[in-house]
Amino acid sequence: MESFGALLRHYGWYAVLAFVLTVFATPVAARLAWRLGVLDVPDRDLKPHARPTPYLGGAAICLGWTVALLAALPGAGQERHVLLAIMLGGLATTALGLIDDVRNLSPKLRLLGCALIAGAVILHTGIADDLAISILWPFGITPPPVVGIPLSFLLGLFIVLGACNSANLIDGLDGLCAGVTAVISLGFFVVAGALAIYVALYDWQHAKNATRLILSLALLGSTLGFLPFNFNPARIFMGDAGSMLLGYNCGMMILLLNERGVLRWTFGGLMIFALPIFDTALAIVRRWRAGRPIFAGDRSHFYDQLVDRGLSVRRVVVISYGLAAVYAILGCGTVVLAIRMRYLLVIYALSVLATIALIILTGMATPEQQPKPGVPDRSAA
Description:
This protein is mostly helical and 381 residues long. The chain has a domain at 4-261. The protein has helices spanning 4-36, 57-72, 80-103, 107-125, 131-136, 145-169, 176-202, 209-230, 239-256, 263-272, 274-289, 302-308, 313-336, 341-361, and strands at residues 39-40, 53-54. Strands 1-2 form a two-stranded antiparallel sheet. α3 runs antiparallel to α9 and α7 packs antiparallel against α10 (263-272). The chain is globular.
């Protein structure tokens, strides 16, 4: 049975490869963006940065991520078709984001494109086929395949689209999305490693251990490679091409953690990704309470409110890293310690209630008294 150290020695170089390639590709992407005029121009409202900043950082992230996956394909064995399908889906997602960065697609069209890409990957790989059965089985409900498989597909699609949207929405401050995703990907690696050890202990066949470990480490390396150029003051932005790819990868990781109907790992993955989920929920609630369209841009996000209350961008970003780490530790800890499902659900429910209470007590759920006119939000997927 392998240990975490052995897994890191075996798979860790994929993170190193993604990191090195992203570090070298990001300055090239910045120069190319300047030459092509692919710039994010400040507007002193939703885009308060001081000067025009190049996009195309997402292309650099995608390059590091993709090459790491390509390098892993020869040794992926039975999992090669799953890893290849997820990689192709990631490339298509990045291409869709690049088009949006350049042409400014409508949120509904972008959502449709994401749904088609994610749906094709889920159908081809079957990674969500038993998701509904896993969720309903503890309640004594076993839906027939004609019901369970379509329901599982819809649930899987909802998770991936939700992850893409959440990652998109949290990309609002220099270094925020990249750093938070790096913390999340490290959490995913810990859970994937625990699952690999568990699978080896019980000698389960056809488990997707390599895919989970490679995806989490490729994501970690590419985000860490981009972060030095994106931390405040940012020299380049990832754009929708980057944030959508990161969200897509996280969504696929959550689906991949559903192994043999044991929900502990799936719930652990959702808890690790909790910060983007809570931020998205907060933005939706504030917009709804203010009578604004859900896809309208505003400063409803928790990080915007912290900046508006006088904290510096760097301090808010570091606080966000800490919050992401808290949720990641909670998700990893409950999985690694193999806490029984009924206790795990209680812990997670208390964590959600505590987060909601903190949001209410700090007044973050209260909308602006005089909301600004809605404008298209390029970060809402």
